[in-house]
């Protein structure tokens, strides 16, 4: 986790995410790659060689340079900047390869109810497309060390290695990690509750075996609504970071089954780390 990508549109959302990335980079000795995407309309008058684009790019590069210099001077963190002329998501995917990115930090609207939904929707899109973890930072969240991290599982079969980014953070910040499963008390049978209870304990024990210096706890949530139960637990337990797994979906799944992780990015007021598997 040495290369952190931070896409920016210079909004308060993006500024909040950049600050969070800086705080993490200071602790894990990482480099930040700050990018901006200019989505030019496909016309003869809007090309990377046009006068209008040259003026826009010069202004944006000045902003990026000013931000990177400020971070380097005050925090002694290396910040590399780049301006892309492509669709937002395509620019991010290109940057992943260009800079060998380990994870992405982006702003999102969370449950703030403000009108900056465009960048929030781009964060959800990135969660669905990225091959590396995406840390979504809600506008209403504030930086605090992630001393209590919760991994909310909706998939019970996975390779423990995909959670390595979580335990790197937990080891760095001396965090407690809660690994949790949810049982719908309306739809699931009693037998399923027992199965989930046994399974979450097995997962906890396997994670402890490979992360012996970290306090790992098992949590079994029961309720009628996943998001309400999860948010209630997060608030009561004062969780600092929520982790969810997201898997690639085929076309029919993407149409008819909405990703819990992407939906959660609109509903949480704490950082959400989405890990693809």
Write a structural description.
The protein has two domains: about 5-140, Rossmann fold, CATH 3.40.50; about 150-240, Rossmann fold (3-Layer(aba) Sandwich), CATH 3.40.50. About 45% of the residues lie in helices and about 25% in strands. The protein is elongated. It has about 280 residues and is of the alpha/beta class. Helix 3 crosses helix 4 (about 115-130). Strands 3-2-1-4-5-10-9-6-7-8 form a ten-stranded mixed sheet, sandwiched between helices. Mean pLDDT is about 85; it is low at about 110-120 and about 250-260.
Short description:
The protein is α/β, with parallel strands linked by helices. Helix content is 43%, strand content 23%.
What portion of the residues fall into strands of 2 or more residues?
Answer: 15-25%
Rounded to an integer in angstroms, the radius of gyration calculated over CA atoms is 20 Å
Shape: elongated
CATH topology of the largest domain: Rossmann fold
- Strand line-up across the major sheet: 3-2-1-4-5-10-9-6-7-8
Mean of all residue-level pLDDT scores = 85
Query: How many E strands?
Result: 10
CATH superfamily of the largest domain: HUPs
Helix and strand run = EHEHEHEHEEHEHEHEHHE
What count of helical segments does DSSP give? Answer: 9
The CATH class assignment of the largest domain is Alpha Beta
Helix percent reads 40-55%
- What is the second-level CATH architecture of the largest domain? 3-Layer(aba) Sandwich
Number of structurally distinct domains: 2
Distance between the termini: 17 Å
């Amino acid at each position: 986790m040495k290369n952190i990508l931070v896409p920016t549109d210079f909004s308060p959302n993006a500024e909040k995410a950049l600050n969070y990335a800086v705080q993490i980079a200071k602790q894990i000795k990482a480099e930040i790659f700050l990018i901006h995407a200019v989505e030019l309309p496909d016309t003869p008058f809007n090309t990377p060689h046009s006068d209008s684009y040259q003026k826009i790019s010069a202004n944006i590069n000045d902003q990026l340079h000013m931000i990177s210099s400020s971070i380097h001077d005050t925090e002694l963190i290396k910040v590399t900047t780049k301006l892309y002329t492509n669709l937002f998501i395509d620019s991010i995917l290109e940057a992943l390869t260009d800079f060998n990115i380990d994870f992405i930090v982006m702003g999102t609207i969370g449950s703030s109810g403000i009108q900056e939904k465009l960048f929030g929707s781009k964060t959800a899109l990135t969660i669905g497309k990225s091959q590396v973890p995406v840390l979504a930072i809600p506008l209403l969240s504030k930086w605090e060390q992630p001393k209590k991290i919760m991994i909310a599982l909706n998939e019970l079969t996975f390779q423990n290695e995909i959670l390595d980014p979580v335990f790197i953070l937990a080891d760095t910040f001396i965090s407690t990690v809660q690994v949790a499963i949810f049982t719908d008390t309306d739809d699931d049978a009693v037998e399923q509750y027992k199965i989930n209870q046994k399974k979450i304990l097995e997962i906890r024990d396997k994670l402890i075996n490979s992360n012996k210096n970290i306090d790992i706890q098992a949590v079994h949530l029961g309720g009628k609504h996943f998001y309400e139960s999860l948010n209630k637990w997060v608030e009561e337990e004062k969780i600092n970071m929520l982790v969810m797994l997201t898997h690639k979906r085929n076309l029919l799944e993407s149409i008819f089954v909405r990703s819990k992780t992407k939906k959660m990015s609109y509903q949480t007021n704490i950082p959400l780390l989405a890990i693809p598997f």
